[in-house]
Amino acid sequence: xxxxxxxxxxxxxxxxxxxxxxxxxxxxxxxxxxxxxxxxxxxxxxxxxxxxxxxxxxxxxxxxxxxxxxxxxxxxxxxxxxxxxxxxxxxxxxxxxxxxxxxxxxxxxxxxxxxxxxxxxxxxxxxxxxxxxxxxxxxxxxxxxxxxxxxxxxxxxxxxxxxxxxxxxxxxxxxxxxxxxxxxxxxxxxxxxxxxxxxxxxxxxxxxxxxxxxxxxxxxxxxxxxxxxxx
Length: 231
Prior knowledge:
The chain is α+β, with helices and mostly antiparallel strands.
């Protein structure tokens, strides 16, 4: 039987209380989830009706074997996501937990496995001192280096092409002009009326309309990173 993401939150909370060595009560759930006891009682009734929990009248709550199995999946996803956003990506704990709560209900076993594999790979590489991990996390934390359309690069700005999002003839023409992923580019100047843009690419200057440049995505480079890119 399918249950809503909110009901899954109740299951996860009961599970967390159980693994801490305590017995869950309506009061515990109300305090933890910040809701009224009447709201908890209604949710618990749904869990009991779905055979996911048992509830002694005016007493403690307990997950059934099936409820515990499903709660474990939710809890594990939450822990994996929280670890990713806090320990790996450096989000503040509250923000990492908030994002994890929003995402955990959308993951299935396959997507969870991919995330776990990704996190384990990063952790291992960081532990082994791989320099690319530090560079990766630094780039992800610097908004100035995030990919953006070439049309948003200021005059004199430099970048590296990451992808071309246009299709059909325009894509082919842009690639033939040199806007291939990995290529250094520089926004030399913009026409007085704002169009076209003059771009230096592969030793040549080419003119692109903004409507064309918007489909060429680049990662801006600054400081020492831009030493090899010039207009």
